[in-house]
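ARCHIVE RECORD
Type: protein–small molecule complex
Small molecule: 2-keto-3-deoxygluconate
Source of inputs: curated submission
Record status: active
Notes field left blank by submitter.
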Amino acid sequence: MNSIDSNFDVVVMGEILVEVATDQPFSHGVPAHLGISGDALNVAAAAAASGAQVGLLSVLTDDDLGQAIAARIAELGISTALLKFRKGQQGVYLVHSDPDGEREFSYARTGSVGSSLGPDDVDPAVFAAAGAVVAGGIACAISESSRAAVFKAAVVAKRFVFDPNFRPRLTSVEEATAALLQLAPRAFLVTPSFPSETSALLGCSTPVEAAAKLRGLGAWNVAVTCGAKGVQLEAGGVSAWVPSIPAPAVVDQTGAGDAFVGTLTARLVLGDDFPTAARFGAAASSLVVGGRGGTDFIPSFEQTRAHTAGTLVEGTVPSNA
Ligand code: KDG
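STRUCTURE (tokenized, with ligand):
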């Protein structure tokens, strides 16, 4: 790897999945849309669109499909330098979604190449040099080796960002909680969702309580995403509520949280303050739901910036959040 390849603002790690999306309940003959997705790709795409140099550590199949996925990664403005290619099967998920956000996932990913990710794939020099490294609970859930890779990344990264992304079909509450509690002390930023993750993994009934708990564990910055309402931010000296921005169009909510995390991380690394970066994240999140699947529509930073006007109210938390 040359020095340019290892100079990333943001490195994202995790499994990339083939996405088979329908807007009708699963059934024989239902029309489906093929896409490339997975939380890591969605995060990386949002970070790249936000102006960051982004590397994506993921394992793809050593065949035409792997090459097609790599081409899509490059098309999204993400470096392919960190990709690994191995024999095996690419993970797949089927998702039935409707515009209200109700989603039903079915996975075919056990033993996938993506889950063969391991600590040896984490180059300490590249990860230590990156402005931030992003990993999530899904990468911790898919295999022992992938979880070990995330833990190694958390140790070597300058700024480690963790999105709990709890998926009950992949892991238990106990395992997801253990990963969060062990990684939070090393985290520059943690992004749990309210109420599902804050309640299941932290036992907290409000976003403020969850943020305080994670700060108490040692996380520097916490952004508790509260769905269509907004985001609660807590950091040293910052307590802010960022209201969500109404989406101009809602087709599929897959990837909304990932767009928030990718945009927020990229903008923090590029020098924006926490509330400003979170406001851009909320705007990006509100725009991606206009596209099908995780990455069909990734807004440019110009679009995201234009969508942010007048949404930030610092220091206030609505009583119903
Ligand atoms: O956050 C969106 C993801 O849940 C979706 O892309 C599927 O990555 C996925 C997963 O592993 O569940």
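CURATOR ANNOTATION: The longest helix spans residues 274-288.
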